[in-house]
Amino acid sequence: MPRRPPRLPPLLAEFDDEEREAVLVANRSFYRAFNERDYDAMNLLWAPSGAMVCLHPGQAPLLDRVEIMASWRAIMRHPESPRIRCTDEWVVGRTGLAIVVCREILANGQLMATNSFVRLTDGWHILAHHSGPVPPVERGQGTAASAGPPLGDRRKLH
């Protein structure tokens, strides 16, 4: 009996390149809203309701939309609020849910962020943002330079 190719589970089969690109557009819109200090655009990007979380570096998690949006308003109004360049975006998704992991480049350091998106009738919306410091990656000759001793087994999370 001839073997059929494996069928993708429905959740994997429906997240195609078009969906992936739409998620990247939403992620880039998030950073554009931040850099342009456009609170209204930021507000529209976040899911209007439901469970959500925002973890700014070094801060307690925010779990309420009102608190999350107040935090973004305060950050964007602060005169020393940094500009952020998003790089190295990596997307994984399922029907209606996607995660973008990316590097945030600031003038004085780098962060890694995980931005989670939910697809609603009007497009992709953020439901979670988590950002924290990481050692900078220096690029040169196609390899990342290490600023310190070897990291060891990277499979260990803690």
Largest sheet: 5 strands, mixed
Helix/strand/pairing category: alpha+beta
Q: Rg from C-alpha positions?
A: 18 Å
Q: Report the average pLDDT across residues.
A: 85
Which spans have pLDDT < 50 for at least 5 consecutive residues? Answer: 141-158
DSSP E strands, number? 7
Describe the structure.
By secondary structure, the chain is an alpha+beta fold. Helix content is 27%, strand content 34%. The chain contains four helices and seven strands. Strands 1-5-4-3-2 form a five-stranded mixed sheet. A two-stranded antiparallel sheet has the order 6-7. Residues 141-158 have low confidence and may be disordered.
In short:
The chain is of the alpha+beta class and 158 residues long. The chain has four helices and seven strands, in the order H-H-H-E-H-E-E-E-E-E-E.
Describe the protein's topology.
Layout: H1 10-13, H2 17-35, H3 39-45, E1 53-55, H4 65-77, E2 85-94, E3 97-106, E4 109-120, E5 123-134, E6 138-140, E7 143-145
Parallel strand pairs: 1-5
Antiparallel strand pairs: 2-3, 3-4, 4-5, 6-7
Helix pairs in contact: 2-3
Q: Which terms would index this structure?
A:
globular, two-stranded antiparallel sheet, disordered C terminus, five-stranded mixed sheet, 158 residues, 27% helix
